[in-house]
Design brief:
Length: about 550
């Protein structure tokens, strides 16, 4: 039992460290934003693409302050409202109509937008252009997806140098977060055109606030930054802090794969078609923002037309939508280092939700299922604890008898364990086995967007946020106190005092955890209490006469 308490103390200490780190991150002074700086233009590269892909985009000259103004074209479907600025032809704002804002439930969630200088840009590299600083012309057409129609198209046209004309085509579809983005390059000149089409995501690097208070700091532990996936190198993360240090290492060129900006619950990803050579570039720009882009060669003969496309997924991290959009895109859901356990848990959680129609009920059913799987191990642990509780008075007498001779005291205790057939470590192994499952479920409940703004019952309107009245954490504290009363009292007075106050200290963390996670622990504790009470009741009934004294 000493070892078991040591494990619990370790978990408690680690949680305390997490809480302090979260509080510090929440309250430390924020750095002063770097004022925007001009980007320098770079001519068309003459070296191989992999060596020059980071330096082929045209920059912003000093004369850009007098650049013409564009207009904003708003496209609306059943799931998104997208703003496209004709100055650059970039997707500058994306509102998700089925997801509410993290801090104001009366507003829709804005994924791309000026708040984080978060844009989806595209164009041709080098001096030929046009690019994300060129003034494009929007062709007339529908701006809202009409009932009965499955798709809506927006065409933008711009002219570059040497007879190059480009049409940028956005395609929006019903019930889809995949936006088709294609560049049709017309070479009206006399010389062959050799350039790159680029598809770029920009961001200021600051993580999105997902909830309020310290819970947002725990939730924000999900990765925020660029991610690149290829069949050769699989899933690679590039954090803004790595780019700050010049250490953003990742695959440079591949024949497949995608590039994304990942944040808690949501993702934007460029998804070029397979079997097309593409370069991946991530960098910190002079203005303090970050850029990640996919670059695809575009070679066009005189008088010919070439089409380069890279659909953009911009929306929630819903597993089925991600799987349908591109291979490996579901890996952006951050389940931590226990993903291999988290996916089956989430699959089962989904099944229970389909059965019950309520994510809170699904959490309860999942908790019961996990408890049933570990029932034999839990029973072994509680039997060991019941035996220890039965001999606690005799252990106390041994400590009093040999208080000044630790060697004789340990010998007498081991003899007692041997006589009563008690393994003092018997309650530890079941706990160790279950810890990975608990950690995996912790990440499932934190990362699953399906629980975001999902109501349970009565006052619980959002399972991903704090319990507004702290009812669940208070009940959780009560169950932990009851469990302590049911456990054997440590013979050591110091340990006894520590274990007496442990439930109240440890339960503090649950006041800053999402309601869904506290609900899981509360139900798990209630089931554990029932199981432990039944086992102890059986031991009290069947224990030998000498143990009843």
């Amino acid at each position: 039992m000493d070892t078991q308490r040591l494990i619990l103390l370790f978990i408690f200490s680690f949680s305390l460290l997490m809480l302090w780190e979260a509080w510090d991150r929440q309250n430390r002074p924020q750095p002063v934003p770097t004022p925007p700086a001009a980007e320098k233009g770079v001519a068309e590269p003459a070296k191989p693409p992999a060596a020059t892909a980071s330096a082929v985009l045209p920059g912003e000259s000093a004369a850009s302050a007098a650049a013409p103004k564009g207009e904003t074209v708003r496209i609306t479907t059943d799931v998104i409202a997208a703003d496209i600025d004709t100055l650059g032809g970039s997707l500058t704002r994306l509102e998700l109509l089925r997801h509410k804002d993290s801090t104001d439930a009366a507003k829709n969630f804005v994924l791309l937008g000026p708040n984080h200088r978060y844009e989806a840009q595209s164009g041709l590299s080098g001096e030929t252009g046009p690019n994300h600083r060129t003034l494009w012309r929007a062709e007339p057409g529908e701006r809202s997806l009409a009932p009965g129609k499955d798709a809506l198209e927006l065409r933008l046209t711009a002219t570059g140098k040497d007879g190059v004309e480009v049409q940028k085509i956005y395609t929006f579809r019903r019930n889809s977060y995949v936006i088709g983005v294609a560049l049709e390059v017309h070479n009206n000149g006399r010389a062959p055109l050799s350039t790159y089409a680029y598809f770029q995501l920009t961001h200021d690097g600051r993580p999105e606030t997902t909830t309020t208070g310290l819970a947002s700091s725990f939730g924000a532990r999900s990765f925020s930054g660029y991610a690149i996936y290829t069949s050769e190198r699989k899933f690679e993360k590039v954090a803004p802090s790595d780019l700050d240090k010049g250490k953003g290492e990742h695959v440079a060129q591949a024949k497949d794969g995608w590039l994304a900006w990942v944040q808690h619950y949501f993702v934007s990803a460029w998804l070029p078609p397979a079997d097309v050579v593409r370069d991946f570039v991530t960098e910190k720009r002079p203005d303090g923002t970050y850029a990640g882009r996919v670059m695809i060669p575009a070679n066009v003969a005189p008088g010919a037309v070439a089409r380069v496309s890279a659909p953009l997924y911009a929306g929630p991290q819903e597993k089925r939508r991600l799987e349908d959009a591109a291979p490996g895109l579901d890996l952006v859901v951050d389940y931590g280092w226990l993903t291999i356990l988290a996916w089956p848990l989430f699959w089962l959680l989904e099944k229970y939700h389909a059965l019950s129609g309520n994510w809170g009920v699904a959490i309860i059913l999942l908790t019961v299922s996990i408890k049933l799987v570990f029932f034999p191990l839990s029973a072994a642990s509680y039997r060991s604890m019941a035996k220890m509780k039965m001999v606690t008075p005799r252990l106390t007498k041994i400590r009093e008898m040999y208080g000044n001779d630790r060697q004789k005291m340990n010998q007498a205790m081991m003899e007692l364990y041997k006589t009563e057939k008690i393994n003092p470590l018997g309650g530890c192994f079941p706990i160790l086995v279950q810890i990975p499952v608990f950690i995996a479920l912790y990440w499932v409940l934190l990362a699953a967007i399906e629980l975001r703004h999902a109501p349970f019952m009565l006052w619980i309107k959002d399972l991903s946020a704090l319990d507004p009245y702290y009812v669940l954490p208070i009940l959780m504290t009560g169950t932990m106190w009851l469990q302590t009363k049911m456990n054997p009292v440590p013979p050591d007075p110091v340990q006894a005092q520590v274990m007496k106050f442990m439930p109240f200290v440890f339960s503090i963390f649950f006041f800053f955890f999402p309601a869904g996670l506290v609900l899981y622990w509360l139900v798990n504790n209630m089931l554990s209490i029932a199981q432990q009470w039944q086992i102890q009741r059986m031991f009290e009934r069947d224990k030998p006469a000498h143990a009843k004294r």
